[in-house]
Design brief:
This protein is mainly beta. It has 1 helix and 8 strands, in the order H-E-E-E-E-E-E-E-E. Strands 1-2-3-4-5-6-7-8 form an 8-stranded antiparallel barrel.
Length: 142
């Protein structure tokens, strides 16, 4: 009986660890669509039940102090490092959606959907209108 209880407790903690490992929160490395080179580190975090993502490091040499000159509103001419680029995603099953993502290169904001491909690979989809009209990137956990 003690072995059964110990086994059940083990399974409970293993399940908790697996659930935590399957979170989209954490630090993710982004990549350039054209060159495949690493671009930045984005920290994804949860606040009030929604998901947000902030650029915490610029990996491209010579662009570490870049500002978002093409952005609109309060983000215009602000440093890209430290900028919140993913805002207000809500959970729907295994996907976080109904928020936005900002592309600091062109200042455009898109609807956004993210989900884990596996524990270390995040699928990030930015789109206009419907999800078919957009671009997908894959970020890796660090």
């Amino acid at each position: 009986m003690k072995k059964l209880a110990a086994y059940c407790i083990f399974l409970l903690f293993a399940g908790i660890q697996t659930g935590q490992a399957q979170s989209v929160t954490g630090k993710w490395k982004t990549f350039d669509d054209e060159t495949g080179d690493a671009k930045s580190i984005v920290e994804i975090y949860e606040k009030n039940g929604k998901i947000y993502g902030k650029i915490i490091e610029i990996l491209e040499k010579g662009k570490e102090d870049k500002t978002c000159d093409k952005c609109k509103g309060s983000k215009k001419d602000k440093p890209v490092k430290g900028m919140v680029i993913i805002e207000g995603l809500s959970k729907d099953g295994d996907t976080w959606e109904d928020g936005t993502i900002l592309d600091p290169r062109n200042g455009n904001e898109y609807k956004c959907r993210i989900n884990l491909e596996n524990s270390d690979k995040l699928k990030v989809r930015g789109y206009l209108g419907i999800s078919l009209l957009g671009r997908t990137q894959y970020w890796t956990r660090i």
